[in-house]
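Saturday, quiet lab. Running sequence design on the structure tokens for the scaffold JK sent over.
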């Protein structure tokens, strides 16, 4: 116990001098009862500590409360995982605990159950968790000898926990957190007591998980939960989940007949006519934007010799995610192996960059030719694990709106600024005006020298500043060959998606021997900018389906207008309306079925058709239509020529309007 005075410097620059046992709790109480009640943990010289941990030397400190964003949520969710584990072990004796981290929007804990466990049990477990919170059990930090900790957990049947501790180097102490009679291995920090957690948590689902993520190990039961600082945040999160479920692109894809996936083509999409109309409109829009920005579109092979991937570095860094193909004719006889195993290897391309370098290398390039911008809607393949596949969001076959800019080093800033401007216009046109930018810097495993990385990171940083774009850093998240900009857009329900990217690369042109003739006649390496705006068309369409809840803007909608009749007397007029719409490029369908008009309207609304034009005898006589827009219950009678002009304007892609 310390008896000397300890000086604690607060964020506002003031200093509090405390004596006796100096802790975060003591500091909070010294400042005031309100802070003492709100305090969750304390930063000591930038490190987050428990409030009860003794501070023995002068330090810079800051009290953490529920108002402190992600750090506060992290500690609440971590504690919630521990309280979940305590509740499960109280209710199901003999259950072993393994790991229980906090994750985005919540936490999980993996258990080794002796008895089957299902989602029907979650309500009971959640009730016990609330009881533990109400007991307000004190949470204390203890330092144990590593070997003693192993022996203890083995003695109480916690073999998984003992195995985790065994991975800690011999001679190191371990921290154990105790809440009431329950305890767990943990680095911490934690709340002062279970009562500090509050009531704003919910258990969400049960899933299977292999011990340590290895399919050769035992299958455990994983319980997911969420936890928030107040009731309003919890309710908002649950509402977002409900809304996300309604917007699920897989569900809407079936209802709107856009696409399907099946077991025989894992991770590859079967686009239906309706879905492919959306694809073609989006691809056409991006193609025009690229043309206007002086990109040259090219097409490169699907399959390349492994030597290109070895030279580029992908063979070592990315081979596990590549589809490798032997270059030989397979044996068609009944006897003997299909493949000899002796042929050289090729690979389906997982990305386009090495192929684009080959195009750049054809002929002699001059400094006057640069920048050269090659674009390709390149079909790529990545050998994603089956369990990771998710509708359009995670596929094995993908088409990228990919491009590579070959430029001189003095052109980096101008090219990066130009790309950021292009990306901003595209996102604005597609309904995503808000996005966040991260500068991802050098990873631990990387190609190239530190000097090269300094130039590359400095180039992107300068471009962002010159473009007036606010950004944050993502340390260590760059590609192995260079730093990158990540563009994270926000959708209609507040989720973020990383789509666009700009990667600055000094390494690949050197590895693949790309050069240009400089002004002084010397051979120089170009700088290579890898860039994409949508990322992959499959994933971006999936994002758009969920963003718009299937209600595409008129120019993107697969069927833009449905013309439906009230009575058969209007059939001829309705056919004329459809012909006029198609003549001006509107994607229109005719519905003259012998069904009630309310049924027709309901069916087309369910298919998310943006506009329904209703024709009856009166409309035919007056050359009008009754217009009903998707999501509205109102009908407006408008002259046919006026409606067509309005639909043509609304149905024109944003770049063509300009």
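Result came back. Writing it out in full:
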């Amino acid at each position: 116990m310390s008896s000397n005075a300890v000086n604690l410097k607060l964020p506002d620059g003031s200093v509090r001098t405390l004596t006796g046992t100096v802790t975060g709790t003591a500091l909070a109480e010294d400042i005031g009862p309100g802070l003492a009640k709100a305090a969750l943990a304390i930063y000591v010289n930038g490190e987050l500590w428990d409030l009860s941990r003794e501070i023995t030397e002068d330090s810079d400190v800051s009290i953490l409360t529920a108002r402190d964003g992600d750090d506060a949520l992290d500690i609440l969710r971590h504690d919630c995982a521990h309280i979940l584990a305590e509740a499960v072990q109280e209710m199901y004796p003999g259950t072993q605990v393994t790991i229980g981290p906090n994750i985005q929007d919540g936490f999980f804990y993996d258990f080794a159950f002796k008895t089957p466990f299902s989602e029907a049990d979650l309500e009971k477990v959640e009730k016990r968790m609330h009881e533990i919170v109400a007991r307000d059990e004190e949470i204390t930090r203890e330092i144990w000898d590593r070997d003693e900790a192993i022996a203890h957990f083995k003695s109480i049947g916690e073999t998984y926990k003992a195995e985790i501790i065994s991975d800690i180097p011999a001679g190191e102490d371990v921290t154990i957190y105790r809440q009431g009679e329950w305890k767990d291995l943990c680095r911490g920090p934690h709340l002062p007591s279970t009562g500090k957690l509050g009531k704003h948590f919910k258990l969400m689902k049960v899933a299977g998980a292999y011990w340590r993520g290895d399919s050769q190990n035992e299958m455990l039961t994983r319980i997911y939960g969420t936890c928030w600082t107040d009731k309003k945040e919890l309710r908002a999160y649950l509402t977002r989940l409900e809304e996300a479920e309604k917007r699920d692109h897989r569900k809407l894809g079936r209802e709107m007949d856009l696409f399907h996936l099946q077991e025989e083509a894992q991770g590859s999409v079967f686009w239906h006519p309706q879905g492919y109309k959306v694809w073609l409109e989006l691809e056409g829009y991006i193609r025009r934007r690229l043309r206007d920005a002086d990109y040259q579109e090219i097409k490169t092979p699907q399959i390349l010799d492994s030597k290109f991937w070895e030279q580029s570095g992908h063979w070592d860094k990315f081979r596990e995610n590549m589809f490798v193909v032997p270059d030989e004719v397979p044996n068609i006889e009944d006897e003997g192996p299909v493949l000899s195993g002796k042929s050289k290897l090729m690979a389906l391309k997982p990305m386009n960059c090495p192929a684009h370098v080959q195009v750049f290398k054809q002929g002699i390039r001059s400094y006057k030719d640069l920048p050269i911008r090659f674009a390709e809607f390149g079909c790529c393949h990545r050998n994603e694990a089956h369990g990771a596949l998710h509708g359009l969001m995670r596929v094995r076959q993908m088409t990228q709106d990919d491009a590579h800019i070959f430029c001189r080093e003095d052109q980096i800033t101008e090219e990066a600024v130009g790309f950021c401007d292009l990306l901003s216009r595209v996102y604005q046109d597609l309904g995503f005006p808000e996005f966040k930018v991260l500068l991802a810097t050098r990873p631990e495993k990387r190609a190239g020298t530190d000097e090269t990385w300094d130039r590359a990171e400095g180039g992107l940083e300068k471009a962002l500043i010159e473009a007036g774009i606010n950004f944050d850093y993502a340390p260590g998240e760059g590609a192995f060959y260079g730093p990158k900009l990540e563009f994270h857009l926000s959708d209609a329900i507040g989720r973020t998606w990383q789509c666009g990217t700009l990667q600055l690369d000094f390494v690949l042109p050197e590895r693949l021997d790309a050069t240009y003739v400089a002004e002084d006649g010397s051979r120089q390496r170009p700088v290579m900018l890898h860039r994409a705006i949508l990322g992959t068309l499959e994933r971006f369409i999936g994002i758009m389906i969920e963003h718009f809840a299937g209600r595409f803007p008129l120019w993107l909608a697969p069927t833009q207008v449905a013309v439906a009749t009230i009575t058969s007397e209007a059939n001829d007029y309705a056919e004329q309306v459809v012909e006029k719409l198609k003549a001006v490029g509107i994607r229109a369908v005719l519905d003259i079925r012998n069904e009630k008009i309310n049924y027709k309207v309901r069916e087309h609304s369910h298919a998310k058709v943006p506009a329904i034009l209703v024709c009856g005898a009166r409309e035919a006589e007056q050359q009008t239509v009754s217009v009903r827009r998707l999501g509205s219950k109102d009908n407006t009678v408008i002259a046919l020529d006026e409606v067509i002009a309005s639909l043509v304007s609304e149905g024109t892609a944003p770049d063509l309007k300009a």
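Notes for JK: The two ends are 73 Å apart (CA to CA). The first helix runs from residue 24 to 31. Ask whether to fix the surface positions before the next round.
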